[in-house]
């Protein structure tokens, strides 16, 4: 080799010009020539490779290199009401940290739209964006390879996968792990088990779905199960839009259809469901549509929801048209569940749609119930699978908060699910069109609701949370066209309402009593004995809710009517007189209450006997009313006698016995017998908490009375602590304006004033005075007492600085 190179070198040296004779010139020139030669060789190979079609693996099929049109995201003008979700997605896009995102929800919730908005923002920021719409495994493989090639996947690595020396998903994700600043959206991944690899769960991350890249993978899916997607998935479930942005969606689509307020009203009626909003807006904007305004469309929904939202579209075979039909989006999910063998999902959803727009306790839906409406044998496992499937596809949700059931009873509420209002409505329409006869479904559900009420009633305190959940669904029984069961159904509602009143859930009880009263007034007449009983029940529920004026008005009317229809000594008339007297006593009208209760006690003793529970109740209430008139010694005597009799007749743990002990202790405290009062009140508080629950109204009353007794003993700090706790709990359970809540606020202010905390005491007393004027009236004794205490404490507060000034002067 040296012999050959020698002459060449000599020849070249002899021929070069003089300027190239220097080494510091020739070596840089030589380096440039070598670099240019290498670049030309590489470019030649690139052109050769582009000139011949690559040999792909079988599943990949044909691919045209350099064309990315099929991976471009759809264009979206704007997205309303998803600012928080977009901000979170943008944060994950910047720092994926080994995660991928699943936008999950039922059909029609706007998953694709949100993903497209994110893709548009990423593209505008300079990220490489790839949009893959799931159809089948072969097309997915082809599009994933396309994305990897765009991110710089070398030809040699694809050749290795073609030859079977490497896994194609491994090759693609290896390149996505090297590349930066990319976003890949896999849209419509509703059947994760089909994405592959075959026979392996997605959560193993061995197929096309992996959290390993240096960009971000985002999927849209109806499947929102964490088990499906694994621990590295960030599930982002989408909820319906709030009223304001939902209304703006309608205004965007049909700006001439009305005002923003009218659009919000229609949006609320449509449940904030993006697809329904889009369908309605598109309809309203159509030049040939029958309804052209938000208001007329909303009114039409009440008469023909099946026409406007649930009907089959004549061109439903076209996928873009089909997605504009609201009902179609959910039927796709139900069809998929049926293909998976989950055939009970559709009838279960239809059954749930018959119930009210409120949380549904899972215990209400039994295998026997679903079997009765489908005509098939249903076991527990099949029912649970149907629930799981509906939840996985977003057709069922979980309530955000538990109701007052758990608060009042101290027991955690039962498992429950909720339906989106529009899903419920359209499935009810679908059931009416499909089920024949529909009466079979109604009859089976009515029997199950009745049985559930009796179960809750027999369970005592343990049944209270279920009773609160059942309450909104019971009124449907009154709407069933079955005259022979009408009395039975009204009795069921009354039974549940009584359970709710024992639980302290007066608001739910009031709704049931009101519905029963309305039906009985219409069908039986206002003077029928059943109607009068329902009116009395409603009045008691109103008083428990803190509406004493309305309660007293109904009770007076009912007492007059019962006296005329049944006679003055009838047990029902005596009940009305007793309830009216209790309401009067509770509003400070003690003298009239004492008169009515003395009359009632004598009558009940004659009619029912001295030891009848109703007679003892009259004596208990008389003791409270006598105490209100200031006759504390007489009140203590009555309460001691009543407590002893209650223990003997009802037992020491009965809730009326506990109330009797509480009343005796409160009367003792007002007499100045603080030591015995404190002992009895602590016992009453412990018993109420154990038997009724920490948050039951009777338990809170015991704690309030204990605070008063401690204050009378001079233990102001402990009294303030108890009153603060009771005030907070009463606000949560009863509400800000309930008379008992106002009492707690007044008692807290009084205890603070005794501790010298006049500033906070004055603030609380002003709030209490305003509330009592609004709720009880300006001349009510409780209002007058608050006004007097406010004046006293305010005067002491103004005098305090002057006293401090005199002390400073004396020290000088």
From the helix content, strand content and strand pairing, which structural class follows? Answer: mainly alpha
User: Got a strand count?
Assistant: 7
For the largest beta-sheet, the strand count, sense and barrel status come to: 5 strands, parallel
**Portion of residues within helices:** 55-70%
Radius of gyration: 38 Å
Tally of separate helices: 37
The pLDDT mean sits at 82
N- to C-terminal distance: 117 Å
* Uncertain residue ranges: 1-17, 45-68, 310-325, 401-411, 802-812
Note the beta-strand portion. Answer: under 5%
Instruction: State the strand order across the main sheet.
Output: 2-3-4-1-5
Shape designation: elongated
Keywords: Membrane, Transmembrane, Transmembrane helix
InterPro entries: AAA_16, NLR-like, P-loop_NTPase, TPR-like_helical_dom_sf
Protein name: Tetratricopeptide repeat protein
Domain Orc1-like AAA ATPase: 79-216
